[in-house]
Amino acid sequence: MKERSPRYLSLDCRLRALFGEKVQKIPLDAGSTCPNRDGTLSTGGCTFCNAEGSGTGRAALGLRGQWEAWRERFARSPRTRHTRLFLAYLQSFTNTYGPASRLAALLEEISSLPCLAGACVGTRPDCIDREKLALLAALPFPEFWLEIGAQTCRDDTLARINRHHSAADTEQAVRLAADFGIPVCLHLMAGLPGESGKDFLQTVQWAATLPIRGVKLHNLYFPKGAAVEKERKEGRLTPLDQDEYAALAAKALTFLPSPVVIHRLCADPAPGELAAPPWALDKGGTLHLIRSTLEYNNWWQGKAADTPENNPFLS
Q: In this predicted model, what pLDDT tens digit does every residue of 92-130 receive, in sequence order?
């Protein structure tokens, strides 16, 4: 069901305004690793992390092979078969980890992909430095995003979920990227161990004070084999229910300034990845609940931030 009126700035709306047509994001696995897995910081990874990476796990195909496989898949779908432009998303693990020369090679390879509208690079806040940011800032793409996994502003939670970085690290990384003119999309997660809904909303308000240009909101789900799934089975951790998450996500939007681009409103588990909760596979239902909550309360993105009086998305 379509929402009756726009109440937030989605990435799809931004891309349609920029390119005049639908732009599809393609997730790519560059075979990256993570200092939280290779022994530099830890070997266990974050407690919510899928050992194969976020939704891809196809590094053996190479970037070009993955790109073409996804384009063929989209061409077969009635919903996306007319799509002509794509964003390359280096998604799995920490893509700015390692020497700058490796990142430079990845960016060069991406630049040669056909029908490319731009790119997104996923990383951690403690794997960003000036040399790598200079490489990213020099990219000629009309659309580029540096996606930084922050998750929370609470250092005690970061320690509990085995992140091995601090909220201060996130703040430093975001500000440094902004100095280079690089748009940052910050990833924030609701339902983390030990956190309440109020804690999540405080994280969103904290993020709104930083020079970010985009946000991804995620509900914590439990991948098979992940440490959080073990905690759930032992009765030490309970997932949010769908209505609870939708209410939190809708309220979170009110704290984000209206120019911030909303890249995602809920998590999207890969096929076969999910152990719990079942509703995490109901992306359409979750989005409908979020939009219904916005409408019912007459909320919109920025209502508790920069646009308290009028919905700026009703122009």
A: 999 999 999 999 999 999 999 999 999 999 999 999 999
Predicted pLDDT at 3: 44
Distance CA 239, CA 24 (A): 30
> pLDDT category, 215, cuts 50, 70, 90?
very high
**Pairing between strand 184-190 and 222-223?**
unpaired
Cα–Cα distance for residue pair 85/142, rounded to 1 Å? 12
* Alpha-helical runs (H) found in 8-163: 11-19, 62-76, 100-111, 130-137, 155-160
pLDDT band at 5 (very low <50, low <70, confident <90, very high): low
Instruction: Identify residue 218 by its one-letter amino acid code.
Output: H
Distance between CA 118 and CA 116 in Å, rounded? 6
What SS3 class is residue 199?
helix
Pairwise CA distance, residues 58 & 61, whole Å? 6
Q: State pTM to two decimals.
A: 0.95
Adjacent-strand bridge partners of 221: none
Inter-axis angle of helices 130-137 and 100-111, to 10 degrees?
A: 10
What is the average per-residue pLDDT within 240-253? 98
Whether residue 125 has a cis bond before it, omega within 30° of 0:
no
User: Which pLDDT belongs to residue 252?
Assistant: 98
For strand 274-276 and strand 222-223, is the pairing parallel, antiparallel, or unpaired?
A: antiparallel
Q: In whole angstroms, give the CA distance from residue 95 to residue 25.
A: 17
Mind giving me the DSSP string for 220-244? --EETT-HHHHHHHTTS--PPPHHH
DSSP sequence for 97-135: -S-HHHHHHHHHHHHT-TTEEEEEEEE-GGG--HHHHHH
Give the per-residue pLDDT at 1. Answer: 37
In whole angstroms, give the CA distance from residue 260 to residue 145: 12
Residue 89: count of CB within 10 angstroms of its CB = 22
